[in-house]
């Protein structure tokens, strides 16, 4: 604990000394993500408006995981962190995602206004999808105007023995958001990843060039009065925690690269029907998933594979199998810059490695804004969860069930409303039906998440430091993230990951030597 406090204090003083006094609203950084790998994932949902900064694309403190999912903007980590950042957050892996403004979800669309001739849909970052479109008589130009293209190349190097290149990949990402009629809206977010010969995923698949097409969202949205309906492939982030998946259990996680997954890729889309109603009593959200998706795990033989740990096959569910349908609802009410949410859902556990497990979830989230301070709280009960167990008289693994209580309490603080932001959070998970022979975890597990972020040079340069401390299997995960906006189209990122695993019983012990730095360049137009 002392090392965490000392590192955060030192960095806080350093960042504070150079903090910018201007209160200019920073532009979201489409490719920054500092929380991606955390257990998280996280989402993360967007809380009420953060007192200090704004910008959904920011991240959840972070990286944008939304608004078109521009990568995580570390800056935006501000109290209103955006989950759509481009580099990461994940629940247990240590990826915080700060709250965003008063948006239902960083990754979703919102009906934000209504005119006499019909409702106006807004994009994830709150912008009118029709803004910026041109009507010069050229139908093709009008259709292509809303298209955004992101070209990216990333290289990561493992500097701990044995030293080697881990990632060497390029990607082309297409994001398209366009109103088709006065009340019909199209959203598409798809990405082609190209893993070159010395990339660990290309090696695992024994290919000189391993390509992969990943579609995060592809849906139609229609609005009638105060009601908005979305149908198609989409992501639904719930919750406000930056360090754990408390209520954020709907969308599966991409855990194929442990702590190093970018936030923009930390959630997996799935077919879903989603309905939002905005009324005087608050916002009501209901969802239905006919065929559940599941977490993605490392390729066999890849850098993050643990022999024998990911051998289970993903369940093969049929669309007409009512036993695997997922559904739930949430009520959210905003009071000024604060909000509260209540939710309930029937879900299939996204983690199928133990077994396909159906459970119920009941949760509550709250964001309370006081001047430049945002307080966050989240609790959930999950009944039941499945765990491996080994009896004293047998070496064979069995499966037992236990109800689980998860909670998180945290804050985001920006002195004087400046770009400098301090965030901290405590996450606690407890098994309510504990058995001594449960394997892989203790009855109580804790995490402490600390984050310091600041922006310099007219917000062109962003620097962030994230530390995650976990018990009872002691582990520290440190992450430094920086991004520099070269011009309106180009951004360069430098990140460094330093896991410090101290207990062989920890599930992340095999990743103790994964000390890496990453260089990433993105061009967007």
From TrEMBL:
<feature type="compositionally biased region" description="Acidic residues">
    <location>
        <begin position="72"/>
        <end position="85"/>
    </location>
</feature>
<feature type="signal peptide">
    <location>
        <begin position="1"/>
        <end position="19"/>
    </location>
</feature>
<feature type="region of interest" description="Disordered">
    <location>
        <begin position="120"/>
        <end position="139"/>
    </location>
</feature>
<feature type="compositionally biased region" description="Low complexity">
    <location>
        <begin position="42"/>
        <end position="53"/>
    </location>
</feature>
<feature type="region of interest" description="Disordered">
    <location>
        <begin position="17"/>
        <end position="112"/>
    </location>
</feature>
<keyword id="KW-0732">Signal</keyword>
<protein>
    <recommendedName>
        <fullName>DUF3570 domain-containing protein</fullName>
    </recommendedName>
</protein>
């Amino acid at each position: 604990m002392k090392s965490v406090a000392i590192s955060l204090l030192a960095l806080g003083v350093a960042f504070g000394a150079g903090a910018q006094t201007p209160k200019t609203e920073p532009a979201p950084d489409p490719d920054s993500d500092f929380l991606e790998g955390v257990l998280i994932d996280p989402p993360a949902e967007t809380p009420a408006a953060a007192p200090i900064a704004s910008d959904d694309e920011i991240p959840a403190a972070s990286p944008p995981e939304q608004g078109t999912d521009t990568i995580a903007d570390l800056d935006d980590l501000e109290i209103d962190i955006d989950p759509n950042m481009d580099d990461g957050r994940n629940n247990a892996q240590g990826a915080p995602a700060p709250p965003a403004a008063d948006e239902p979800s960083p990754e979703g669309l919102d009906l934000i206004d209504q005119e006499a001739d019909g409702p106006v849909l807004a994009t994830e970052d709150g912008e009118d999808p029709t803004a910026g479109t041109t009507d010069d008589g050229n139908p093709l130009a009008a259709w292509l105007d809303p298209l955004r293209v992101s070209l990216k190349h990333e290289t990561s190097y493992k500097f701990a023995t044995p030293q080697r290149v881990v990632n060497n990949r390029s990607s082309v990402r297409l994001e398209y958001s366009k109103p088709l009629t006065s009340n019909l809206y199209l959203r598409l977010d798809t990405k082609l990843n190209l893993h070159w010969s010395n990339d660990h995923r290309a090696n695992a698949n024994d290919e000189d060039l391993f390509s992969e097409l990943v579609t995060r969202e592809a849906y139609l949205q229609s609005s009638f009065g105060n009601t908005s309906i979305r149908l198609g492939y989409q992501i639904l982030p719930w919750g406000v925690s930056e360090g754990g998946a408390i209520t954020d259990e709907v969308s599966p996680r991409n855990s194929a690269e442990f702590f190093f997954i970018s936030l923009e890729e930390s959630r997996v889309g799935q077919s879903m029907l989603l309905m939002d109603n905005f009324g005087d009593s608050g916002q009501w959200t209901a969802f239905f998933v006919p065929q559940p998706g599941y977490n993605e795990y490392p390729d066999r033989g890849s850098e993050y594979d643990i022999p024998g740990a990911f051998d289970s096959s993903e369940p093969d569910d049929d669309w007409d199998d009512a036993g695997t349908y997922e559904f739930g609802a949430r009520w959210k009410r905003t009071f000024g810059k604060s909000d509260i949410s209540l939710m309930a859902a029937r879900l299939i556990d996204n983690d199928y490695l133990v077994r396909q497990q159906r459970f119920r979830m009941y949760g509550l989230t709250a964001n309370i804004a006081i001047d430049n301070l945002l307080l966050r709280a989240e609790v959930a009960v999950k009944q039941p969860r499945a765990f491996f167990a080994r009896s004293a008289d047998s070496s064979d693994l069995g499966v037992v069930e236990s109800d689980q209580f998860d909670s998180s309490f945290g804050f985001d603080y920006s002195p004087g409303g400046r770009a400098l932001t301090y965030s901290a959070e405590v996450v606690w998970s407890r098994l309510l039906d504990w058995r001594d022979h449960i394997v892989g975890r203790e009855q109580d597990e804790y995490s402490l998440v600390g984050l310091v972020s600041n922006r310099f040079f007219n917000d062109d340069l962003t620097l962030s430091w994230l530390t995650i401390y976990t018990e009872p299997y002691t582990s520290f995960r440190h992450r430094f993230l920086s991004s520099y906006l070269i011009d309106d189209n180009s951004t360069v990122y430098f990140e460094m990951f330093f896991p410090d695993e101290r207990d062989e019983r920890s599930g992340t012990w095999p990743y103790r030597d994964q000390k890496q730095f990453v260089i990433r360049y993105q061009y967007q137009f």
